[in-house]
Amino acid sequence: MSSERSPDVIELTFPASSSYVRLSRLAAAALAAELDFDVEAVDDLRIAVDEAVTLLVTGRHDAPITLRFLPSRTGIEIEGRCEGSDVDGFEVTDLVEAILSATADEHTVRSGPGERRFRLVKRLQPVADPDGGADLE
């Protein structure tokens, strides 16, 4: 998606607290709606962001969470990270993996001593045109 990104990159940084997970969901849903995602795709993205950001805020650390929203003509890429000496690694459960697989077109999650990261991609689905073909609006 990188070659098709718009120049608009939105970055959101907030404290590592579960009370801010809602903010990240709302930001993702609002941006997806602006990009003309359908209602189901907006809901999928909201769920994926909720799961991924929860992975970043879970545990006892003071590292801020940073999300980068990278919109494009074909969809959206979201990168999340937290880095700090008190950040520990984690294992992604089978349930979280299943949820991310079902709600994002691509996803990666990485963690280790001092960092936690994720990347989500959600693509716009082609819209069928009245002549029977498919076309992006």
The CATH architecture assignment turns out to be 2-Layer Sandwich
How many domain modules?
1
End-to-end separation: 17 Å
Give the helix level as a range of percent. 25-40%
Number of helices: 3
Summarize the structure.
With about 140 residues, this protein is of the alpha+beta class. The protein has three helices and seven strands; from the N terminus they run βααββαββββ.
Describe the structure.
With 137 residues, the protein is of the alpha+beta class. It has a single domain, classed as Histidine kinase-like ATPase, C-terminal domain (Heat Shock Protein 90). It contains 3 helices and 7 strands, in the order E-H-H-E-E-H-E-E-E-E. The strands form 2 sheets. The protein has a 5-stranded antiparallel sheet with strand order 1-2-3-5-4, with helices on one face. The protein has a two-stranded antiparallel sheet with strand order 6-7. Helix 1 packs antiparallel against helix 2 and helix 2 (39-57) packs antiparallel against helix 3. The longest helix is centred in the middle third of the chain and has 19 residues, at 39-57. The protein is globular, with a radius of gyration of 16 Å. The mean pLDDT is 89.
Which terms summarize this structure?
Heat Shock Protein 90; two-stranded antiparallel ribbon; globular; alpha+beta; single chain; 31% helix; five-stranded antiparallel sheet; 3 helices; 137 residues
